[in-house]
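Limitations

Structures in this collection are predictions, not experimental determinations, and the ligand pose is part of the prediction. Treat each record accordingly. The example that follows, with 2-acetamido-2-deoxy-beta-D-glucopyranose as the small molecule, is included so readers can see exactly what is and is not provided: the inputs are given verbatim, and the output is the predicted complex.
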Amino acid sequence: MATTNSSQLSLFLILLAILSSGSLTISSHGFTVEEATVAELQLAFKQNQLTSRQLVEFYLGEISRLNPVLRGVIEVNPDALHLADKADRERNAKAPSSLLPGLHGIPVLVKDNIATKDNKMNTTAGSFALLGSIVPRNAFVVTKLINAGAIILGKASLSEWANFRGLAPNGWCARSEQGKNPYVLSADTCGSSSGSAISVAANMAAVTLGTETDGSILCPSSYNSVVGIKPTVGLTSRDGVIPITPKQDTVGPMCRTVADAVYVLDAIVGFDRNDEATREASKYIPRGGYKQFLKQCGLKRKRLGIVRNPFVVEGSEVAEVFEHHIQTMRQRGAIVVDNLTVANIDDILDASGSGELVTFVAEFKLSLNAYLKGLVSSPVRSLADVIAFNNKFSKSEKIKEYGQMLFEAAQATEGIDSGVQEAYSNLARLSKDGLEKLMRENKLDAVVTPGANFATVLAIGGFPGINVPAGYDSNGVPFGICFGGLKGTEPKLIEIAYGFEQATKIRKPPSFKP
Ligand SMILES: *[C@@H]1O[C@H](CO)[C@@H](O)[C@H](O)[C@H]1NC(C)=O
Ligand SMILES: *[C@@H]1O[C@H](CO)[C@@H](O)[C@H](O)[C@H]1NC(C)=O
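Predicted complex:
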């Protein structure tokens, strides 16, 4: 997909094409696909106002119109229309009620570090080093999506190697180059699941999957005004996901609404014998799934802990909006416990001092080497090969400019030594004295902070969090609000996030400001 297109004139022409978009109404019955939720799409299917083929054609059209600038999509599935026809045939053959309200016939983009085994799409984490590699099987979460009837529309771009290579800007990878924030093109996209956030925000897909190790779902969701669910580690299998560390990696939905994200979460959670962490975490999955927690009055009687320091910048635009949202939560029946602090918060947020980085580099070398060895065929078979590839065949000068210091630091590690063990203990202690104690002592259902900087507190404990769009600054750059809690508390977080979303309805489609 990536074509170099840097001249001012062509950029101008593309922007003109974006802004002068034609009618987005695609069927003769007047159904509008733009911003449609999964439930609305399913209803339109049922009422014969829409087919999956029309839906895929719509997204392919939007991708060819918008992606030359936004670069949120790295590859389109050459079989997408064929799969859409298959979904349409299945729908016509079955009683429609048996297909509601899940993902049947719904096009999904998955981040390019999540394996797809169809021998047409690549799985590369945005790097040329993995182009042409053959994965042994679909990632478990992809199999789950396919079993739910979803259409894999393509792969989303990302900060290369999920932001674990060097000093590249957020949203940049060698294969797709710089992803752009669809609200304000010059603004940060955050990362590393930048393409998933960009694409779903700009209606280039119905729903998307991202991955997070520390902030990679929550942060781009905040910056691109979408809902991101970062599940408890182990709730979603990491099998077939290009890894950073099994301690913290997790796969989650990035969507335009909480309900859409919950439909996706319901489809992808579950035990997988190829990911041991799912054995423990699958006990958290409620009977009947997560949909039952989409309650209009989800904020009622919830004890919400507001953690200001250091997340609220006094006097900022975000702080002002945040105060207003706290009032709304009170009005909707939440019990607000204000001005709490997480013990040792400065230590937690310092990835070098806490030991988090020490565990990342050691785990990354082991996990990536195992992933690469498991490939059916691949131009690179080890981290050392990837480093050599970047040094030698770099198709982009940017690779040299941005370096690969994290790769090099990882390559220099020698397994899980006493230093790494010590880091594990320190991180466990920080979580125990920090979020765990705070939640218990204040009997909280969730902690609430503006933006996504709370992600590290959640990351080091394997805890879940949800970002919901919360506002736009005076330049039009979006920001979110983060609800976080202890392991397995997705039901409560979903009630709170949905209650907040329904009370505020902040999200609006992007306006492509320069
Ligand atoms: C996957 O990569 C190969 C190059 O190895 C390329 O020819 C092919 O078009 C890519 N697939 C897609 C769907 O872009
Ligand atoms: C929060 O606590 C700090 C220190 O205890 C205090 O200075 C500040 O005014 C409090 N803020 C709010 C909004 O209560």
